[in-house]
Write a structure and sequence with these properties.
The chain is α+β, with helices and mostly antiparallel strands. The protein folds into 3 domains: about 60 residues, no CATH class; about 80 residues, Glutaredoxin (3-Layer(aba) Sandwich); about 110 residues, Glutathione S-transferase Yfyf (Class Pi), Chain A, domain 2 (Up-down Bundle), CATH 1.20.1050.10. Helices cover about 60% and strands about 5% of the residues. It contains 14 helices and 4 strands. The chain has a 4-stranded mixed sheet with strand order 2-1-3-4, sandwiched between helices. It is globular, with a radius of gyration of 21 Å. It starts with 5 loop residues before the first helix and ends with a helix.
Length: about 280
């Protein structure tokens, strides 16, 4: 068995603790008698550990790794779809971010102070006075509004803006809830309830029918243009084969949707986000 190093012990500290430490970084650095102008080293971290100040050394080791504060802190989890739409957009906008994976069995006061609803994702925007925000669609709209000044991922035509809002809300009120309930009752509920599984599977097919008809002859959801609407919907539609437990033929009934998912998966932000998601799933 491989021996654990001091660095391994340091990196095992939960990320939500790191967030608290970050907010008090000046005091922690002062405690270790390190000037804020000097980037701490791993040796500093190990010395701190030997002195028993594990929280402090954790901060300085992570500070050495990141060296500078990210633009955004993202509270996330590895499995569900919603955090990864935010990651995809952050990558499209070239915003730096630090991810804190939330333990939903042990929600910390720090996380709940950012998101009283206690669900991921949530963000803190360090470029705008540590503005905190939760709900994934709200986060997409916020990031696009502040950091997509050229409207690469949004619209200027009033009718297209109305359509974009319609499809954003359709995901939030239709695709997300029905897909989520189908996943829950089929895979996670403590007992099988056939009537619930049947109900939500029917709703999944109904919603997919709406999407399939809309995408006929279209490359994107709105205005023949890649936008946050597509990012928002992709992270749910890509899960259809898993949701229906049919990895071979799930999209045969919905060929427009299947082709759309395949196309979208090649976009920079989505492709990079899902590579990161796969890596996160192995660790969390």
């Amino acid at each position: 068995m491989k021996n654990r190093s001091h660095a391994d012990d340091i990196l095992s500290i939960p990320n939500d603790i790191i967030a608290v430490i970050w907010s008090n970084r000046s005091g922690f650095l002062n405690l270790l008698k390190l000037p804020e102008s000097r980037t701490p080293t791993e040796d500093d971290a190990i010395s701190g550990r030997k002195a028993g100040n594990q929280a402090c050394l954790t901060f300085i080791f992570r500070q050495q790794q990141q060296s500078n504060m990210s633009d955004i802190t993202l509270y996330s989890h590895a499995s569900g779809p919603n955090p990864w739409k935010v990651v995809a957009l952050l990558k499209e906008l070239n915003l730096s971010y630090n991810t804190i994976f939330v333990d939903f069995q042990n929600k910390t006061p720090d996380f709940l102070s950012k998101n009283p609803n206690g669900r991921a994702p949530a963000i803190v925007d360090h470029k705008r006075n540590d503005k905190a925000l939760w709900e994934s669609v709200a986060i997409l709209l916020y990031l696009e509004h502040h950091y997509d000044k050229e409207n690469r991922l949004w619209f200027t035509n009033e009718d297209e803006i109305a359509d974009a809002n319609q499809w954003l809300l359709f995901q939030a009120s239709g695709i997300g809830p029905y897909f989520g309930q189908k996943a829950w009752f089929s895979n996670f509920h403590h007992e099988k309830i056939p009537s619930a599984i049947e109900r939500y599977e029917k709703e999944v097919h109904r919603v997919l029918g709406v999407v399939e008809k809309h995408l006929e002859g279209k490359e994107y959801f709105v205005g023949n243009k890649y936008s946050i609407v597509d990012i928002n919907n992709y992270v749910w539609l890509v899960n259809v084969p898993w949701l229906l437990n049919d990895y071979q033929t799930a999209f045969e009934k919905y060929p427009n949707t299947g082709a759309y998912v395949k196309r979208l998966g090649e976009h920079k932000g989505i492709k990079e986000a899902y590579a990161e998601k796969a890596a996160a799933a192995e660790k969390h």
